[in-house]
Design goal:
230 residues; Double Stranded RNA Binding Domain; 2 domains; 3-stranded antiparallel sheet
Length: 230
């Protein structure tokens, strides 16, 4: 089965090319407009107390100095950053000789690091949500191009209700938009894997890879987002 334009983009998707599991298409607003201003979400930041801000700042400073220090180690260097059971961190740096043998190891435990691995993650949780919207320059209608929480193979079964709202910032202005997706799974494979009632529309939103590019008036292509989705 040929890779289809995702169901949620079908009204504005314009086919460009397809080969095997690859599909490339552009978008055209329902009003006919073909240039857009792209918006990308701004991940939320945790609100920290003055004390916690100081701890986070000290930890980041320690990390910068640590990596600056080991940058001068000769030959090849491998780094292991582990989470310990007590929430601390154990960073091990191994210098390797030219023949590949490890001949010196440095280990830094929690005592030398202001915050442990789990402590840092608890205070500053990573937000990997990616949301991209295109606002038509002609009619100002807003189109959702990609939301990592609900689009793509890994997100296909996520609950689409009660999603968090985000602030957005302008990424590119007055550009055309080119999208490429890949889907390594055939519809029959997905349907036959215990997914009774699976539809072609649902299949079209289960792509494994997406690349979104902004194309300027002079033909320059700018990467907006590229993601392997499972």
């Amino acid at each position: 089965m040929a890779v289809p334009i995702p169901q949620y983009l079908r009204q504005i998707g314009v086919f460009r090319s397809a080969k095997d599991e690859n599909l490339t298409f552009s978008i055209r607003c329902t009003c006919g407009g073909e240039t857009f201003t792209l918006l990308k979400n701004v991940p939320k930041k945790a609100k920290l107390s003055k004390e916690d801000r100081e701890k986070v700042s000290a930890t980041k400073k320690w990390e910068r100095e640590f990596y600056k220090r080991i940058a001068g180690l000769p030959f090849r260097c491998s780094i292991s950053d582990q989470c310990l059971e007590d929430g601390g961190r154990k960073i091990t740096v191994s210098r390797r000789s030219k023949n590949g043998g490890i001949y010196e190891t440095h280990t830094f435990k929690k005592g030398g690091i202001p915050l442990g691995f789990n402590e840092m993650n608890a205070l500053c949780p990573e937000d990997y949500t990616v949301i991209i919207k295109a606002v038509c320059d002609r009619c100002k209608k807003e189109h959702l191009i990609f939301d990592s929480r609900v689009h793509g193979c890994d997100a296909a079964e996520n609950d689409k209700k009660d999603l968090e709202e985000y602030l957005f910032k302008t990424r590119n202005e007055r550009v055309t938009v080119e999208i490429s997706i890949k889907n390594y799974w055939d519809f029959e494979d997905v349907e036959g894997n215990g997914n009774e009632g699976f539809t072609a529309g649902g299949y079209s939103d289960m792509f494994n890879y997406i690349s979104i590019r902004a194309v300027t008036a002079d033909g320059k292509k700018l990467n907006v987002h590229r993601d392997e989705l499972g």
